[in-house]
Design brief:
Elements (H helix, E strand, L loop, with lengths): L9 H9 L2 H21 L5 E5 L5 H8 L3 E6 L2 H14 L5 E5 L13 E7 L8 H11 E12 L1 H10 L3 H5 L18 H11 L2 E8 L11 H4 L1 H11 L11 E7 L11
Helix pairs in contact: 2-10
Length: 264
Amino acid sequence: MRDRNFDDIAEKFARNIYGTTKGQLRQAILWQDLDRLLDAFGSQPLRVLDAGGGEGQTAIKMAQRGHHVTLCDISGEMISRATQVAAEKGVSGNMHFEQCAVQDITQHLESPVDLILFHAVLEWVAAPQEVLQTLWSVLRPGGALSLMFYNANGLLMHNMVAGNFDYVQAGMPKKKRRTLSPDYPREPQQVYGWLEETGWQITGKTGVRVFHDYLREKHQQRDCYETLLALETRYCRQEPYISLGRYIHVTAIKPLVDTRKNDE
């Protein structure tokens, strides 16, 4: 099995993800969490890895705040787009780009990083635990992980609301290979378990788009965006709404001492 490369549909990806209220809301909720995460580090510039960072929307914003960001992506087209935007924004000096799979990033880092961004990638990789172990290996003790993944619960609920009963009963198989529908929607409890088995201590969970995608009147997604954002913000960090988000954002830290050794 090969991990997804978006070279063939980079333009569609940019338009359908970032050019909609889906993308706007995802970024808004994500940055609420990231701002708190950055505050916990203090004011010093951080070494940041954006693993599978695509067009670099989040990475570039990190660079604009003075952090030193390495962005890797398997897609040459995505790297090209990110490089161009970084130059336009005047932050190329704070960024380094590597076209490689996340699994190969250890070959391209000179030292461990302080913060890893791993957003909307886990649902595309065939060997998720291997990738999480790689990320663990390049993060310094005391560093943090920002992981956002496509939620299987949200996919099921979305299809039930739409009345796609036969599709749900069939196990929601992916119909076409080369689409923006993720290959491997993830079960939240399984992801949490993978993180804890690797050694991370989970510090936060946030549902992303806990209401937006379920609205019957789709025009409200744009017409009532500010009200919707306020309500998403109010409820997205409590259950049952976390587990109903189309994505779930998890923050976690790598302990200064590996407590797993003490358990043996």
